[in-house]
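Box 3.1. Reading complex inputs
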Amino acid sequence: MQVTRRQFFKVCAAGIGTSSIAALGFSTDALADVREFKLTRSTETRNTCPYCSVSCGLVMYSMGDKAKNAESSIFHIEGDPDHPVNRGTLCPKGAALVDFIHSPDRLRHPEYRAPGSREWKRISWDEAFEKVARLMKDDRDKNFMAKNGEGATVNRWLTTGFLAASASSNESGYITHKVVRSTGILVFDNQARV
Amino acid sequence: MKNDPKKLLRFTPMERANHWLTAIIFFLAALSGLSFFHPFFFPLTQLFGGGVWTRILHPFFGVAMLLSFGGMFFRFKQQNVITPADREWLRHVREMAGGDDRNMPEAGKFNGGQKLLFWLFAACMALLILSGIVIWRAYFSFLFPVEAVRVASVVHAAAAAVMIALIIFHIYAAIWTRESIDAMLYGRVRRAWARQHHPAWFRQMTGGEK
Amino acid sequence: MALQSLDITRRSATTTPSPSQRKTQEVVKLIDVSKCIGCKACQAACMEWNDTRDKIGTNHGVLDNPMDLTANSWTVMRYSEVETGRGLEWLIRKDGCMHCADPGCLKACPAPGAIVQYSNGIVDFQEENCIGCGYCITGCPFNIPRLSGKDGKVYKCTLCSDRVAVGLEPACAKTCPTGAIVFGTKDDMIHHAEGRVADLKSRGFAEAGIYDPLGVGGTHVMYVLQHADKPGIYHGLPKDPSVSAMVTLWKGAVKPIASFALAAGVFGAFFHYVTKGPNEVSEEIEKEFKDEK
Amino acid sequence: MTNHWVDIKNANVIIVMGGNAAEAHPCGFKWVTEAKAHNHATFVVVDPRFTRSAAVADLYVPLRTGTDIAFLGGVINYLLSRDKLQHEYVKAYTNAPFIVKEGYEFNDGLFSGYDEAARTYDKSTWAYEAGPDGYARLDVTMQHPRCVLQLLKKHYSRYTPEAVSNICGTPGDTFLKVCELIATTSVPDRTLTFLYAVGWTQHSVGSQMIRTAAMVQLLLGNVGMAGGGVNALRGHSNIQGLTDLGLMSNLLPGYLTLPGEKETDYRKYIGARAFKPLRPGQMDYWQNYEKFHVSLMKSWFGNAATKDNNWCFDWLPKLDKIYDVLQAFELMHQGKLNGYFCQGFNPLASIPNKAKLTAALSRLKYLVVIDPLDTETSCFWENHGKYNDVDPARIQTEVIRMPSTCFAEENGSLTNSGRWLQWHYRGAPPPGDAKPDAEIIAGIFLKLRDMYRKEGGAFPDPILSLTWDYDIPHSPAPEELAKEYNGKALADLADPKDPAKAVLRKGQQLDGFIQLRADGSTSCGCWIFSGAWTEKGNMMARRDNSDPSGLGNTLGWAFAWPANRRILYNRASCDPSGKPWDPNRRLVYWDGSKWTGFDVPDFKPDSAPSEGMGPFIMQPEGVGRLFALDKMAEGPFPEHYEPFETPIGTNPLHPKVINNPAARVFRDDMKDFGKSRDFPYAATSYRVTEHFHFWTKHTRISSILQPEQYVEIGEDLAKEKGIKAGDRVKVRSKRGFIEAVAVVTKRIRPLQVNGETVHHVGIPIHWGFKGIARNGYLANTLTPFVGDANTQTPEFKSFLVNIEKA
């Protein structure tokens, strides 16, 4: 676009004029406004707090509507107001749960630490299962006790132990117990005491 | 001719530069400060790039003002020592304002009014700087108890208002007294002007000639 | 977000009234100190909802943490171990913006619309309009607003105006495990508080009462105190807070009067000039120095 | 909990003792503030520290850590000596009138039958005297010198207010004030509830502390009542469920027990568990033991479990002893354990005596850690300077760590302390490659099974025959597993009242454990959970929160075991004639033809009051036990024993028997116990409200709220030691030291105990060498390796330390 000298002056004059008017108080202020309500259109999922045994009801709010191409991510959690015990309340730990989910210390991949090593090595799930099953089988085959000194059938395996969780679901706990007992493990406990 | 050597040298180039630097900074400080003084003036922030920039710049204008005004202060301090004649001058100031200078004692380089103004400026500046530091939120306010900040806010606003009033007076006096502005613009004044407004200084400069 | 329920009734640095025909219900967050266990759930919920995260600090030999309000911590618990006639009492007060009916911060603010008061009583900072001067800090009788070192804006509790706008309670009130924080209309909250005071009196707290200081026109965050006669024992809660006289002086009539005086000065000078004329070199002297012309 | 969270609001007096509900369970604690606000309840906190719970209490009562039995024993003495009992209840619903066998004795700190070498009791004298009809003998006048009430009186007569004050350090008048308050609930229309947590369990006498509270409640008639009971608050979201599911060395799901190695005969095994009634006309629900057991074995081993092979009884491992976690680490330390799995458990942080644990883990051949977080246990071999000073090169343990999902990333149920099974849903995928626990277990199991299929090996039968009919074998769905533990009919089930009719068709989900059979026609993975997923669907996901009685029993919300019952022993809320003791708190009642009401009756629904069946239907005698028979390891009546590390060095009641004579302690650990002359201060470890165990130090907000490790000491001790608030201090026990910031407080006061001044040092546990909070020492560096005699729970709550400025 060709700008003639005259046009140029006009533009400049207009610019100066408007800025002067602005200086005299004709500018429009940004409208005062509250923050956007951040939960609009987010997806709600009911859950239970994983900390103490009050087991407060939670409503988790996630980004994405669960469409195929949207990867859900939870960005806010608050108490479930319908829950008879917590009635929408959450304690300081519960109110901070979203930071637990997104903790930088969450583990992301199976890892292996060799004897004497100073570091973790990332491995695949298949390698991890293979390694663990092999270690178990070797130990079990070597140390399984079918009968005790008195000749009674005891079918126990005492050289590997299993410490179960305190916050895994009943379903996880059930299948864990089922598998552990099938191997004959007796050194078995959970976190009921601590 | 503006620089007619027959005219009397009233202000050196450095003095003039210092004055006008101070004047410019004063306007920056005053306009930016006024924008926070009352909502009526808030649009002045547009001159400085908006409210946030105005808030950032204003205290630095104050610092610049301190340096520039400080220069003036030390330059002119000696010449502004108030003498008994100045006091006499000040007693007759009403007559002066009425345009009747018959009873006015002879003024030196600066008359009593100018000297008083000088010291009032200095006092206001001191108050503005001290209170300004206390209310400079970004760097200093957290060092002071909130009550001190509150007092400083009042002092700063009051000193600023007085300062602006004095400057208005100063400017008007310069306009009212014809040719005064030339003195500060070009440095030299006509001898007639000096004889009229600052007779004692005139004598001093001309070695008693007439 | 449309402000269905948040009509602005007062705006900082604005000399003309905001549209004020609509009057919505006044809301109050009531903090019952006698039910507070100091669990800091409100602190957590506040940070979580408002997407702020304070820094991970250190322990200072007390349970308070963060130690003070910051631009990221808009509420903190204040713990006081106090010996009273009943023996040791551990008084735990949730500190944060009181949402005064007559807010000192709004009064002090020079930036138009940086601080607003909604007709429901919430005093809200609009950081978009904030210029970062910190005058609100000077104006606040409760020492609440905090300047961010990161963006030079001032932050404080919004009473979750974004939640209240859509009909929800503030995040802290919702999360409070023991019901020490409740939220509702001012009338309902006063009624609730009176019930609590009666219960406390029945348990021997003869001076139990409501904290809703009139010096700031009442507040939209109120406390139930076991010892309402001594608010100072709750980590220095002011007994009779009001907007400082200095602030009133600074932001009150003085400035318009001063502005008017300055304008009058300019006009006075002008009229002096046109009535008295300029101060010129007299004709006699001009004659003496006629060589100069 | 015998009751549940919401029910706390019905109490008139609430005592938090052996716990700190306000800090550890804030949202449950709301029902305490509700009871205060709306039921005008009086709230008392008994604790060595003035806790956040105490901050809102009507009365705070200090006591020395580990002396709760002395305190509650004193309460029993007060109630008995001033006759503040709910007489009718005590007579009808407790074993107070039962006559104890001759030979039972208690002398100078020991009950009859003690074997000093084995540190165990022969409990044969701790039994009822049998009458000629084979049933236990009673004296309804309760005057017989060997009746339980008289023995009880005699036993606790030593627990005078002066003795209590001397042992506990509780001021005498404060103690009496508590007694008076407790006594007010002996009337039928007032109830007391005890809320406790690991502040009771984590003592070498923890189980007996809880029992003492239960006895107080029985004497007051508060068990089975709305607003009553003895309520364990429990510290982890599903520790109730995982215990219900029997994930312990000696348990099977539903509190069935594993056979010992002397019980290799199936009939004897069942016979020893299906108790014979001790009184006529009693329900004695454990008589059904075989139904539960057979259904479990059908669930696990399917068609392989037949009547002919005793339902695979031989496949179950047989116990020679209990393998609790302390035993596990002891074996590991001795080099007898080669492999160890830690699933969502961080023992290096959670188990006492870190030095021993590190040594033990270093002797493993392999360690498998399944966890969502970067735990200390999985990194025990990493050097973290002063916080974990080990040399990785010298640790030969192979470690495999597998990332699991967290709650937000899976479907499933958790059981809260009120025994509610609540279903939750996945909200987002897990980070990286993390997998749900069930999938990880399946992955390991399928590999192992493949190896046994291909290679054979030691006794592969149970592994090869384990039922695994999940739609996706490597990913068993939570829904499938829930249906499995609920149980189903393996054949058409005939109606017992009308054999022509079938209650359930083959393949249908069971409605509840009432339908279980011992003939192999039902399967059920956990009998007490039966009813959780019926033909009507997932009962755990129910969300009807209506509360018609106003007592808080929301029967349409989720599912509570057993049989959706909310308050255990609720038959005891009625008098023997079936009328509620308190007409304002009607849970259940006899309507003339059946038991009905606002809760699921904990009773035979059609047993008329006139039949005289006792309300405690799981007990062979149908009544609550003031005298525990042989159920407790250290005696039928709780007795005060000092902590293993006692600040006073003696037991004022019987100086010859200072500590629990039957506690879980290993010889080698005895040398690691400190004496009060070297470690003069009573220490207690605990949680604080800002943190959850060792998890939330990985959470930003929680780390902000309480960023750095600290210990709490009283002002007097601080002054004595020249410590100011904010100073760094070093706390030592015989087993190691930690450094932390000192919080100096008025809330911990010195106590006058047995003529000495005892100071407490409070040690929060939440910091370690992993996480985003400031790193710290694992608090369990300090704690002693000794456990309760019954539960083997470590004594985290009472030990000795010294403290100095660092």
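In summary: The radius of gyration of chain C is 26 Å.
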